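Z., the sequence and structure:
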Amino acid sequence: MTDPYSEWDAAYVLGSLSSSERREFELHLRQCADCSNAVAELAGMPGLLAIVPASEALRDDDGIDAQELPATVLPRLARAIKRHRVRRRVTITSSLVAATAAAVTALALFLSPIVSSQLVPTSVVTLSAVQPSELSADVTLVDQSWGTRLDTHCTYQTGDRSAGAEAYSLWVTSTDGRQSEVASWQSAPGSTVTPTATTSLAKEQIASVEIRDVSTGQVVLRGTL
């Protein structure tokens, strides 16, 4: 149902309502949020009109003297104000839609890797010491279409900091016994390294992963799947 007072806001703000109409409209404003908002949007219009120079205010765009203006001018002005408000609302709405779309896109880009990492099957293997060592490590195996990615988190516990860095390597043993080196790095006392390696083997084809001391070739840590 159309609000019969929806066109009264501009006339109210510009002071063209009769005293009885003004009282009637003010009673309506107490219970109508839409009309109250419309009046609030137009509240600054009288002030803006007041700063127009008298020489400009007395003539319209066609040079007609203000005293000759027909009685329809105020309604036309009210409709013009309405059109301006509608255009402003459309502009604001378009801006909000664009901003919302941008926010949704940014959120999607932000969440995409998180969601993807949750959907991709992974396995975490904690490596156990084969011989006494200051090393501790775990390896996360991530399924890929071409094989498996191995994300290693290796910590060299605090020890003799005067000792230099030592070289280590990550080896993969397949279920049929084949062994291959997939990564190497250096670790010093008190450091943590996170090398990433890849293998063409599917996760189901991997029997174990090992960390070896490069200088001796001995297995330091091992984890089985």
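The domain at 9-114 is CATH 1.10.10.1320 (Arc Repressor Mutant, subunit A). Residues 63-73 have pLDDT under 50 and may be disordered.

Let me know what you think.
H.
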